[in-house]
Design brief:
The chain is an alpha/beta fold. It is built from 13 helices and 8 strands. Strand 6 and strand 7 form a beta hairpin. The longest helix is centred in the middle third of the chain and has 23 residues. Bound molecules: zinc ion (ZN).
């Protein structure tokens, strides 16, 4: 048995903990680049010498360049990211580029030079306002390159946040559709690392605990928004991030990466559309079948859960059958696919798409 486990230097979790943000940032410096979504301003506590940087929609390479320019101009010592996965990933990328220099394209794979990020970034504090991506504890930043029409990642240990501050109260205002899609992303990020060929005993324990919490609380968070259900989902999302950063993902995310670049659809909604079909295919073919039985015991019937949460089919996001071959080709090459418990053939990938379409 060999494994390594890396995460944020400090994780602070609890209702009302956002109020501690001024004290947490104060330990690193006073000039703060505050990367945020529009909605996040209503929950943010006041910070001295705070330079706001708004993220709308998908974070692009250009957006990261603009953030780095602003942070340099204002001599920022700390970067805070308050928002969903897009905002947190933007903050991570800015914090890393501030010390490593150069352009985002120097560090991304496929469309860039793929250089390693070698230096620790400016201290970065990640505060999620959705319960799904777990981006507060992952070591990659997903960015969109409009010119290449593809999502690319900056990766490495130095992208880990210095502090992950998870306050379930900051997810209280989420509309049901966002609760559903982000919650199913969290669930996918607990199932895929659990059945992954890179799973280890530490991520296993985290995944079991997270799946149990999603099973008992996602429908209630969707139906009623009850605070205790929200807290379970915020924790499940954090656990999904811890698990995926250390045990990898699988075919759901292998598909979600290219689909997210090709179609205007929320990441969580794409994962939700694909999850049941990928799960069934893997359960049939993978060598570690007992793992799939355990997931079924912990989570219950996945297709039924997806129906109850109003999950859409791929065709409803504009995915066209004619593009299946290119989707299959890109998914097979996606880095998440390496964690899938069994190597899937192009025919099997096609069958999954057909099921989810
Ligand atoms: Zn995901």
């Amino acid at each position: 048995m060999n494994f390594e486990f890396a995460t944020a230097a400090r994780i602070v979790f609890g209702a009302g903990k956002l109020a501690e943000l001024p004290a947490i940032t104060g330990a690193f410096g006073t000039r703060i680049l505050f990367v945020h979504a529009r909605s996040a301003l209503t929950v943010a506590p006041a910070l001295p010498e705070c330079f706001p940087f708004l993220v709308t929609g998908e974070p692009t390479l250009e957006l990261v360049r603009a953030g780095v320019r602003l942070a340099r101009q204002e001599r920022c010592e700390v970067v805070v990211g308050l928002g969903g996965g897009s905002v947190i990933d933007t903050g991570k990328a800015i914090a890393a580029l501030l010390t490593n220099g150069g352009d985002p394209l120097d560090y991304v794979e496929v469309v860039g030079k793929g250089q390693a990020i070698t230096k620790p970034g400016v201290p970065f504090i990640a505060i999620p306002t959705t319960a799904g991506t777990g981006a507060e504890v992952t070591r990659n930043a997903v960015l969109f390159s409009p010119e290449h029409h593809v999502k690319v990642s900056l990766r490495g240990q130095h992208l880990l946040a210095r502090v992950a501050l998870v306050d379930p109260e900051s997810t209280h205002g989420l509309p049901p559709a966002v609760t559903a899609s982000t919650g199913l992303d969290a669930l996918t990020q607990l199932i895929e690392p659990f059945v992954s060929c890179k799973a280890n005993p530490l991520t296993d324990a985290i995944c079991r605990e997270g799946m149990m919490r999603v099973a008992r609380s996602l429908r209630r968070a969707f139906d009623t928004g009850a605070p205790d259900a929200r807290a379970d989902m915020a924790l499940a999302s954090l656990f999904g991030g811890l698990a995926l950063a250390n045990a990898g993902l699988g075919a759901v995310h292998g598909f979600a990466a290219p689909l997210g670049g090709m179609y205007d659809a929320p990441h969580g909604a794409l994962c939700a559309a694909l999850l049941p079909a990928v799960f069934e295919m893997n359960a049939r073919l993978a060598p570690n079948r007992e793992r799939f039985d355990e997931v079924r015991r912990l989570t219950g019937d996945l297709p039924e859960l997806c129906r109850a949460l109003g999950v859409k089919r791929l065709r409803e996001f504009g995915v066209r059958r004619a593009e299946f071959p290119i989707i299959i080709e890109k998914a097979a090459a996606a880095s998440s696919m390496k964690g899938n418990p069994v190597a899937l053939t192009p025919e099997q990938l096609g069958e999954i798409l057909e099921q989810a379409w």
